[in-house]
Amino acid sequence: MLANLMKYEIKGTARLFIPLYLALLLFALLNRIINPFGMIESSENFNLQVMFSIISITVYFILIVGIFVMTLIIMIQRFYKNLLGDEGYLMFTLPVKSWQHIVSKLLVSMLWTILSFIMAICSILILVDSDNLFKEIRQLISRFTDIFGSAGFFTLPYYALLSLTTGILMIYAAIALGHLFSKHKLMASFGMYCVLYVIYQVVMVLFILVFGKKIFTPVLSSPIPTPSDINTLVFSFSIPTILIMAANFILTNYILQKKLNLE
Amino acid sequence: MSNILECKNVTKVFGAKAALRDVTLNIPRGKIVGLLGPNASGKSTFIKLCNDLLTPTSGEILIDGKKPGVDTKKIVSYLPERNYLNDWMRVSDIIGLFRDFYTDFNEEKAYDMLKRLDINPKDKLKTMSKGTKEKVQLILVMSREAQLYMLDEPIGGVDPAARDYILDTILSNYNENATIIISTHLISDIEKILDEVVFIKEGKIVLTKTVDEIREESGKSVDSLFREVFKC
Asked: Which of B53, B73, B123, B169 has the fewest other C-beta atoms within 10 Å?
């Protein structure tokens, strides 16, 4: 059933994302071909070509920013409209558990967020001169292994995914809490997000106050911290994050299960 | 178990207002039951509670002996009083969704009914009128071979001609062990198909009788009895 829910969630969102991704890649390609930066540099006065170049660059940047804004908006809108709006009448009478609704929406949101990053990177790869780029990337990777060691290829994506999951679940919990209000539900959701965010920060500060000495001493005491010191630090910080993530999930699930009150 | 639905002392309170007060009700299998009451009398709240869209403040609801949840959703086919269809979908997409989630969904039946009502399965829901969307929803709901159908205002928004077809559809599309609960205030239109009626007023059940009992005891139609009970 989870697979079925995800299938329809992907169907419902792909129609919005795919055209955006295609537009981004197309404009990256267009910018590569007409080389607007070179055009602006080489022309001596303002002419039609320069104007066209500026427009082309601007559209590309708007698309990059737009894709991330859209990813966030669609994430919020799918949860709010599909579960707590009129469509909720269908979703919540399907024979599935409420946690499956949350997990399906979460996983699909994560998928699009990651894809949006990949698309942004792809568009940059299309846009720039690739010979130099691969040299730079190789340098970047070697710098990265110096600091994090090869374990960093696991710990950093792990922490990034954890933070992403926590961030999305916090948005879901805020929307679910906001839905408990009888009026101004969206405003209330925004307020609730602020409250949850402050709680998250407080938990983090408390964590540092209590365990800080233990965690930071090895990193700070050595002139150059070893990769394993840094990885331990990342792992330590994942503990309070996991707690917050679990709390947001349980809270959202509880509201959907017991406090659901569709309009 | 002879009763498909059992309701014991169910109360639902919203803030300071009680939408349902101490409702106790048993509904047997194989009946068509009218849940009748004026606007805001608690009809929709009752149906939502049975569908796990609301949780009772106190009391218990059992459907086929089970509390509302995943197991009851498999055997209850619910038509809400609003449009719940995703606008971007085609009719064929939503039929696919019903097929994927409900094992009792009869796809052939759905396509057959669409054809008879001249609805093109390839049409997008966005382009459809309100009445057509209501027909699509009713077709979806009645194409399930469920044990309990709960129809909340199923004929409110459609024209009288389609109303007759819809009532025929309801009658010809359920097996005799299934129960249908229809909530409405348009009584005269559905009176002829009802076996039993439940009158609900300000969150309380005021009368539960079979239609035959009403006719024998008072010599009145359900419609005129309703007008009497709910006289303003």
From this structure: B123
What per-residue confidence (pLDDT) applies to A232?
A: 85
**Which structural domain, as residue segments, surrounds residue B85?**
3-229
* Spatial distance between the Cα atoms of B11 and B203, rounded to a whole number of angstroms: 9
Q: What is the DSSP letter of B170?
A: H
Q: How far is CA A26 from CA A31, A53, A112, A119, A126, in A?
A: 9, 15, 19, 11, 10
Cα-Cα end-to-end distance for chain A: 26
Average pLDDT for A44-54 = 77
Q: Does B99 touch chain A (CB under 8 A)?
A: no
Residue B64 sits in a domain whose CATH number is: 3.40.50.300
Cα separation, B16 vs A144, whole angstroms = 60
Among A82, A86, A260, whose Cβ lies nearest the Cβ of B83?
A: A86
Q: Which residues pair with B61 in a beta bridge?
A: B7
* Total domains, chain B: 1
What ipTM is given for this predicted complex? Answer: 0.91
Taking the C-alpha atoms of residue A252 and residue B89, their distance in angstroms, rounded to an integer, is: 27
User: What pLDDT does A223 receive?
Assistant: 75
pLDDT of residue B1: 58
- DSSP letter assigned to residue A182: S
| Token duo for residue A35 | 């080389």
Contacts of B137 in chain A (CB under 8 A): none
Say what the pLDDT of residue B171 is.
Answer: 80
- Is A89's CB within 8 Å of B82's CB? yes
A95 vs B15, residue with greater confidence: A95
